[in-house]
Amino acid sequence: MSKKILVVEDDPKNMKVITLALKPHGYILLEATDGEEALAVATRDNPDLILMDMQLPKLSGVEVTRRLREMPAFRHTPIIAVTAYAMSGDREKFIEAGCDAYLSKPINTRELPALVAEILSQREKDRV
Ligand code: MN
User: What is the CATH number of the domain that holds 104?
Assistant: First the structure.
């Protein structure tokens, strides 16, 4: 069955780059453009993986990640942090909030699907 990926991104241009990079791989793509919508779509559609922009309106990516991790349904859902500027300590902050991996912008359109596939297959193995 196709995996569902929730892309949380407030910049339409970045959203397009990300969804275009993932589309050929057969995923079902869900979109959210702010932190509150991210929580709403995640709880409604239960994605297999979440790509989380860290700079978001309403709720930051860190806050959304923390809230998701508090819900039993999202305790183990892979969350990849995406950010344009990583200052020293940011990466640690994202991992501490519950992110599994980290990607910096501008999005590398080859690296992104490779990382997503790797994390999804790792998660399958962990379940067996
Ligand atoms: Mn943003």
Answer: 3.40.50.2300
Query: DSSP states of 49-103 as a string?
Result: EEEEESS-SSS-HHHHHHHHHHSGGGSS--EEEEES---TTHHHHHHHHT-SEEE
Q: How far is the CA of 61 from the centre of ligand 1 (A)?
A: 9
What is the domain count for the chain? 1
Confidence band for 1, pLDDT divided at 50, 70 and 90: confident
**What type of residue is 63?**
E
123 Cα to the center of ligand 1, angstroms: 27
